[in-house]
Amino acid sequence: MKLLTYGYSKQEINERFEKVCQQVFIQSKQIKTGNFQVVSNDDVKLIFELYDTYFFDNYFKENKVTEKMAFDFSKKMTSAGGKLMYYKVTNKNPIQFRMRISAYLIFNSFKNNSTKTKTVNLAGFETKNRLEALMHVIEHEIIHLIEFLAFNDSSCKKDNFKKLANSIFGHTAFTHQLLTGKMEALKEYDLKIGDWVSFSFDGRYYKGIIHRITKRATVMALDKNGIYKDAKGNRFTKYYILLKYLKKLDKKPIQS
Ligand SMILES: [Zn+2]
Question: Which residue, 189, 187, 175, is CA-closest to 80?
Fold first, then answer.
């Protein structure tokens, strides 16, 4: 299969990546800057089609793969940067592949108006902004697509995937757990499990300890009437709070 034979030098990869980038700015209705603030499902499709043009000689279009694909962003997907779902095509279902991208991770990995250059390592690249992150996530999903087309199966844990992703896109890391809510919480809000924080809830002020972090933090707040109790007899109530509403405390508060 022709798709399995592609391979580019580092320089060729950079040049093609830049071309895709430039065309996104020209053709996308929403993406006009690297740290775009609005994006649509059409942008995932556009980027995929540009990769098809610049990396694969329009193989996906000419072999009628693209027309059997759907593209979307998900706000709920928080553990993986992207996902490629593979379906059986039937009369009722013309969609064979759905490429889904985590809007949550793309947006939260970079601040809106970052003047400081904070990079996020993705697929082995120091990624500077949302667009670059989105592109590397799509690259990873394209390798899954190629494997599904060639072998009816795909795994980014296996050597074949790693070889393909490296020779076509120069990837040196191959995981879906590219960025996690936990990592972002650490970076952006400087919070981690075990930290003491304060927050307001329903007009009351609480102090508590972070028990778990996903999209929100699970905070065990000190509360005389709480139903949770630790070994020292402190009582707690459990709250789920968005990270941005938490204020880090320097030390453990003394329960009043
Ligand atoms: Zn993967």
Answer: 175
